[in-house]
Amino acid sequence: MEEFSNQPIDLNVITQIEQLKFCDLDDNYAVEVMLTTAFTLVTLFALVIAAVLLIPNFPFELPVLLVAALVFGAIFWLRYLSAKAKQYVVREHDLVFRKGLLWRKMIAVSFNRIQHIDLTSGPLERRLNLTSLKIYTAGGFSSDLVIPGLNKQTAQKLRDMIINQTNIALEPSDNE
Amino acid sequence: MSDSENSWQRLSPVAVVFYLIRIINQVISNALQGLAPLIVLLFSAKNKLLIISASLLGLICFIVIAAILQYWFFRYRVRDNEVQISQGVFKKKFRAIQFDRVQNINIKQPIYFKPFALVSLFIETAGSAGDEGVLAGINETEAQTLTDILLKKRQAATTPAEQQADQPLNDDDKAPTLLAKASMSDLIKHGLSNNKFLILIAFLAPFYNSWKNQVNDWAHQVNLQSWFDLFPSKPIAVLITFVIASMAIFVLFALISIVGSILSYHQYRLTLSKQTLVRKSGLLNTHQESLNLSKLQAIQRRCNWIARVLGIESLVLAQADGHVGNRQHQHNKSSSLFIVPSRTPSQSIELIAAITGEQPTMQPTNAISKRFIVKNWLVYFMLPVAVFAGFELSHAQTPSPWLLLLALCALPLVYLRWKNYGFRLDGEYGLIKSGFIGYRYERFALHKAQNIVLAQSWWQKRSGVANLHISLASGSIVIPYMPQAQALAWFNQLCYHIERDNRAWF
Predict the structure, then answer these.
(1) Do A140 and B357 touch (CB under 8 A)?
(2) Does the interface predicted TM-score (ipTM) exceed 0.85?
(3) pLDDT, tens digit, for every residue of A108-158?
(4) Which residues of chain B neighbour A145 with C-beta distances below 8 Å?
(5) Partners of residue A141 in chain B, C-beta under 8 Å
(6) Backbone angles phi, psi at B230, to 5 degrees
């Protein structure tokens, strides 16, 4: 044990996560989510219409279509809200991401526990100048943190910053 | 040793046996699926016997020759700061393992090495996904010296200079302290409590009816009528047969687990020297495993209900999965556990104190919210009952009360589960207790956490509770239905300890 100390910790020194101000994702992220959701929902709705038209003696044609439209509309609205609910905050030593409407989740990953970082962006994301940041730690299966819908420049800045931070953390003595 | 340090050395010829077994294992685990069509082809051929025996002979010859060649081309030597291995028949492979990259050293002595006083030395390095250096069939004393060199060099490489000065010099000469042993009765108890049969029974019990029919059919086939005639009525006969058969299987399973426990933990010895834990045990195949204390992620006290009846528990020293960051290789979880079998609670606590250097507190101070009972009972028991009742109603049947009764019977179990949950923040350590009839304590240094997730559903938010998931490199821990203020406090404390504590987690 190196110069072991066990002083009581002043709780006021510890940063309280509940007092932080979170940042929103890029505005284009909601656009991306709306586009992809709209695409799938329109396809599904087309299938429902096709079923109603093609299957002979389809019962309750109009109500079925109405209910389908309502449900799909609700899904679309929820997807939009949940896209808007995703927020993150970068602190000196860690990254905190929160998401979810009914089931809320807050994930914290400290820079000195990060194993590696990926930046990915699909065709649509590239169009909208978006990038997802994926962070891997050494803990278990569901441990990765994915922050979608970051502005490309922001994501790169964030990655560079994290890499710098981890390098600094690794250099002194404990380079196991 | 200066002579051998510079020249390439071969393994003992007995190593051929090691390679033989390894190749056979590889063939069985990898090539067998590919060979299946070939085997079908063989069996449908005309001169079956001849072709099969010929191809079998060919396979055996191939394996033997491959093993001999592998042995012949394997050379190793120990240099100042690395072990060099040169191997490969057609594809040459050269590997240099630097001492300061070594993470773990395992010494195994399979039964066929015993008469020759040989061992296999497995050198695991950081980030080598199952691709460690294996010196199979080297002299026992040589392996021990090599281990000492490796551990000492590693120690020197990882401890900064000024701390080395701090350490008492006689630390080197200090004999390893014996932390734990296990007697034969300990091993028998451990085997009994590891018996998976009772869990099987618990799963199969609901299907008793279908089993009864099966047994009935089977009895008809085997003509057990005379046996059944011994009993006054058939259902009783079936029941008694069922019970006897279960007991026979139970005894069999118990024997298997006891034998397994003795085979792997015979002459168990756990020692601590220079920040390294060494475990040595095994009846036929002796296995020596070492773990650097800095690699320890969490300590668990585990006790299932059989163990509870027997008054014992196991202490598990969980270390980081060797292949960190490599998700494909995480299936091998059990190998990264360091199990101390058959401890009494006080022995466990003593052992933890000896390992961590301070007296652990094992009493959880906080309980989880009672809403845990409500939610789990409603979702896992009442919801299925309601769905089933609805199903019955829609088919114009009156819902049967049995399921509801069953759900009511489950209520005490859910209550027990709630009652057993507890947690405590204790300076630099976190403690979590859980269990039904048995228990499980998990104690970990807060700075070993990898990431933290605070999850909260809308209902949980309304009632001011939250689930906390803490990922360690050895696995994750969940505290459900924590009071929100405490969950946030843990979250903040964990972040603080991860970021303030400069000690490496690995």
Answers:
(1) no
(2) no
(3) 998 888 888 889 999 999 999 999 998 888 765 555 789 999 999 999 999
(4) 451
(5) 327, 330
(6) -65, -20
